């Protein structure tokens, strides 16, 4: 390699001008230059053709020390402005010490290559040549299969350099699979397509050390109110992987439908699914769990009980108030339905449901639901009243709380039974049971994690925290992503209206919710409750807002949404390129004209007009 | 045909039971029975298998005189409860007097068959046999090509009967193509798939006379703030055709981008499109216009001016304040930009744009935009100030209104020039120009139609009406379908938040907006302004809300949304079956359990327990 940068520049300019002529009809009109820390759109001309660059390339290094990375890393970030063309036919992966996990890594590699492909609008016009690239993964050998737990260290170090022979070496070091695949995700964001040169380019030199602030970074999807195809769930997992979210909380069942195949109790899905085409078979579940694992995501099932049951439980005489009318008197939305805690055989059914879930999901944490129990529902049942009287109990609220406590104790016993005696941490929603005095009576803080769905400023949160419970935050005023639609049993808007913008999701500080107890916060989840959402609107409800949540949880940035806006615009495009129908945040004009849309945009052409010229190194022969 | 209904019943039952056994694994669990005017879900059993029916079949006749028709017809509706199996391989079309329009009718027929197909989940398991069906279209011969105008009579009569040979005859009578194809749309809604018998069935006897209340029934799509693929625009036209909406108002350009190919001015889209892949070529436009025509839809272009221009006009020196900053001082959203009315050559460019639009769209009504002109924008231009002074004008608001009036007069002259002297009706948005005293000075009520986008109760509306202008209603508080998202230049929510539910769209009475001047109301349009919407969210923003609008405009029902709810739920499913990603209104449970979800749902099993049994006639041999 004896050519100098100047000589290369001339050769490159000539090559580009001839290319420009060759493709005049669908040629590019605009490129970008980095000026005063912003990527400015410029009309391409023979004069600027060699130095103008594409938007994704420009944004990688211009004006921000973290480029276009989303979520932003929490450790060192050193990104060179030098880009190198990569020959995507010569990318190889080397994984140390994971011989036994070959299949897992092969899936990860395939996905990585798919992500690169997704950026290239037309492979036929891709310029030839470029550097070879080796991706080297350094992790100690792990037990099979890799399993994410609350103890997993998800940190990684990514180092990109060029060796003497001109190869690009991307080295990822992590203590396990999960950290390593996060590193790969970051690497993917440093590889971009330059539509001016029609090349795939990579940041030539970089060092990034990174680790998440919160360990629980999740999305909840309710597949009972409306059904979602496996394909659409996979799209969600794909979007999650792209922003290092690590928990897919699957609220599989509810009163409305029971779409899960439980091997020993096929009548549950036969009677409970909307149709036999709307069932998650054992094969479907296995597919989703594995698809998540490849993407560093735990797929955690919830079986919500004792309320939120109904369809599927017909003919068993194990429920109360199923589809009672007028529903307003017995539950929060139609159809009503609660398990009858007094029927012993009911716990056998629970055990089979839990058994399927533990068998198929192998959860490190299990969700037992526990929200919105209605006293009036249970009180409407003669057999329940009779049973309670037999125990010498009254029929007051405290008595029904005792009944609930009884249910929870029995149900937990069945969980422990199917978990072979391991005491899996249990999550419950905030409810009457998580309030004084019942919380102390029925819920052991060593065992239970509480998922908060009240508002972030509700004093109940601190009461739970000071008792020593770990919490997961899903405050509805910032993280219920189904808010803001029409009413569905009334006119007007739905109960938690208005729509929650990504800005609010981004600025939702767990620290200010937890105060002094921040160390008890495992993390947070954004939730889609599906009364008015199904797979046709799934993508745009989650994205890009779930990306905003992801950065809050991974990076917990000191800055607010304004500092993240232009980077998120670019990330939203990345989601779209990868097949996710993310909602548009702004006119495309704002993506193409950085910093011109904010309400406080100031006039351009101010003091700092320094022009950064990108040096592009391309080998003369491939 | 000598068999009796009873004998048939027995044969049918036997046939069905054997079929049930044959498909036991993915067999149906539930069917429906019509009880007390509601379709009630029942578990299928050998006892009820012969009389249980599928939901779409049940809903066609149970409890409502208009079945599942959407929008509801305005004339006579007589629907028999008798259904007949149709052999979809033997459906033939006979179109009288339209020899010269064969291609148009062939497209219509293909689409009709596609709609039937969309209902069948799996053609492989479709039961054999059924009746032949003939669709007979009776319309007088028409000039080619069929063209929708404000004078077009869209009424039709649909008559379904069976002739002596057992054929189902669907006769549609109309005075032109547009009425006839509406009749076909209604017919398509009377043909449903019965998943119990795996048959396509048609209402055996029906008479429907129908005509729209309002002649302008439209949707507006802004393709400038964000770009929409032709494919996604076609989906919109498809949804419109299904509910007899007849006007696609294409707001093609704006300040943000100029995605239209103007033959004589290719620089407009070269410089103005977001990319050269995001351009509507002449071929694209022709395709969209024809796709609309086949579906009974006029595709009306808008060229919004003198404000709302910018990208594409570079290097011409014909605009003022393009992308001026801070934008708040010069326009309502970035990027700012207005035409400079003082540059004579600018009108030549306009003429070329208008020329392309008249050539390609052949509009019977043309939209010249005219909203949100900013005085401060024009006032920021030295050349404009100079020109105005030269005319002896001041620089006060009234002077700029005069400038605007000058623009409108000149621009209209160019429209008339390209329209070969025909005085095409012109639509303008409500604006400063449509207020006193300017409206009387610059806008002739014989020539201009005013599109209202202020609120429905704004007194300005009546002031316009009493002057004799015809109006089109797009009151933003009910018909701006982009309201309710996040802010896009601020946090919080966008300017016209909250989200407008379908109920509000449905109940938006043009009569109460227009009062005594109802006869001046041509109709209404629902609008999508695309700052935060692109093709990924297009379907769910329009649907099912645009269907609610369609019924308001076609039928103008005396009843409110509650009476329409369960029918719209079913229609939303129809949209989804036809490939539109319509938003979910409710849990699927509410579709399957009619009348159990409303907040005033009363307990079932009340007084009227009359059971209507559907008689199903199927020929013994195909």
Overview of the molecule:
- The structure is a homodimer of 622-residue chains.
- Chain A has two domains: 36-210, Chitobiase/beta-hexosaminidase domain 2-like (Chitobiase, domain 2, 2-Layer Sandwich), CATH 3.30.379; 216-592, Glycosidases (TIM Barrel, Alpha-Beta Barrel), CATH 3.20.20.80.
- Chain A has 20 helices and 22 strands.
- The longest helix of chain A has 22 residues, at 397-418.
- The radius of gyration of chain A is 27 Å and the shape is elongated.
- At the A-B interface, helix 15 and helix 20 of A face helix 15 and helix 20 of B.
In CATH, the topology of the largest domain in chain A is named TIM Barrel
Count of runs of 4 or more consecutive helical residues of chain A: 20
Mean pLDDT rating of chain A = 91
List the chains of the largest interface with their residue counts: A-B, 77 and 77 residues
Please, what is the oligomeric state? Answer: homodimer
Going by helix content, strand content and strand pairing, the class of chain A is alpha/beta
CATH superfamily of the largest domain in chain A: Glycosidases
Task: Pick out its properties.
2 domains; Chitobiase, domain 2; TIM Barrel; 20 helices; eight-stranded parallel sheet; alpha/beta; homodimer; 622 residues; disordered C terminus; disordered N terminus
């Amino acid at each position: 390699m004896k050519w100098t940068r100047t000589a290369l520049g001339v050769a490159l300019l000539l090559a580009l001008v001839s290319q420009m002529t060759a493709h005049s009809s669908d040629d590019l009109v605009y490129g970008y230059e980095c000026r005063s820390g912003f990527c400015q759109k410029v009309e391409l001309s023979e004069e600027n053709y060699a130095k103008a660059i594409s938007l994704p390339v420009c944004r990688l290094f211009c004006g921000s020390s973290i480029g276009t990375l989303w979520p932003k890393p929490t450790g060192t970030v050193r990104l060179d402005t030098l880009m190198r063309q990569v020959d995507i036919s010569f990318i190889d992966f080397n994984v140390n010490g994971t011989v036994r996990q070959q299949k897992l890594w092969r899936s990860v590699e395939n996905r990585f290559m798919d992500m690169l492909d997704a950026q290239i609008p037309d492979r036929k016009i891709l310029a030839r040549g470029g550097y070879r690239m080796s991706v080297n993964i350094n992790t100690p050998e792990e037990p099979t299969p890799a399993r994410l737990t609350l103890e997993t260290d998800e940190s990684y170090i990514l180092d990109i350099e060029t060796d003497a022979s001109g190869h690009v070496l991307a080295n990822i070091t992590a203590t396990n699979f999960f950290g390593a695949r996060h590193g790969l995700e970051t690497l993917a964001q440093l590889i971009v397509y330059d539509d001016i040169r029609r090349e795939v380019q990579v940041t030539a030199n970089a060092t990034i050390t990174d680790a998440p602030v919160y360990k629980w970074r999740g999305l909840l999807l309710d597949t009972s109110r409306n059904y979602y195809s496996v394909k659409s769930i996979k799209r969600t997992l794909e979007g999650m992987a792209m922003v290092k979210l690590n928990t897919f909380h699957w609220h599989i069942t509810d009163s409305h439908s029971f779409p899960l195949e439980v091997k020993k109790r096929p009548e549950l899905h036969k009677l409970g699914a909307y149709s036999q085409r709307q069932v998650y078979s054992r094969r479907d579940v296995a597919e989703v769990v594995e698809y998540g694992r490849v993407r560093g995501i735990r797929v955690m099932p919830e079986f919500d009980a004792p309320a939120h049951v109904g369809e599927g439980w017909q003919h068993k005489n194990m429920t109360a108030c199923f589809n009672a009318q007028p529903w307003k008197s017995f539950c929060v939305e139609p159809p009503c339905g609660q398990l009858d805690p007094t029927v012993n055989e009911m716990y056998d059914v629970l055990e089979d449901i839990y058994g399927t879930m533990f068998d198929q999901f192998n959860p490190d944490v299990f969700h037992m639901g526990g929200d919105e129990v209605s006293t009036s529902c249970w009180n409407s049942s003669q057999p329940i009243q009779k049973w309670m009287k037999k125990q010498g109990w009254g029929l007051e609220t405290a008595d029904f709380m005792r009944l609930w406590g009884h249910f929870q104790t029995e149900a937990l016993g069945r969980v422990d039974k199917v978990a072979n005696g391991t005491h899996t941490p249990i999550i419950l929603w905030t409810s009457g049971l998580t309030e004084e005095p019942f919380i102390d009576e029925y819920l052991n803080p060593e065992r239970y994690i509480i998922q908060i769905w009240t508002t972030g400023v509700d004093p109940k949160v601190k009461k739970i925290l000071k008792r020593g419970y770990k919490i997961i935050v899903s405050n509805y005023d910032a993280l219920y992503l189904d808010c803001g639609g029409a009413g569905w049993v009334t006119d007007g808007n739905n109960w938690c209206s208005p729509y929650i913008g990504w800005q609010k999701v981004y600025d939702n500080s767990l620290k200010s919710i937890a105060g002094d107890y921040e160390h008890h916060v495992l993390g947070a989840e954004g939730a889609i409750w599906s009364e008015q959402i199904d797979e046709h609107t799934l993508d745009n409800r989650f994205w890009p807002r779930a990306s905003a949540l992801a950065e809050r949880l991974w990076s917990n940035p000191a800055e607010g949404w304004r500092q993240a806006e232009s980077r998120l615009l670019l990330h939203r495009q990345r989601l779209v390129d990868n097949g996710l129908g993310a909602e548009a945040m702004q006119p495309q004009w704002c993506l193409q004209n950085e910093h011109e849309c904010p309400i406080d945009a100031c006039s351009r052409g101010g003091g700092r007009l320094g022009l950064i010229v990108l040096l592009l190194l391309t080998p003369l022969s491939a």
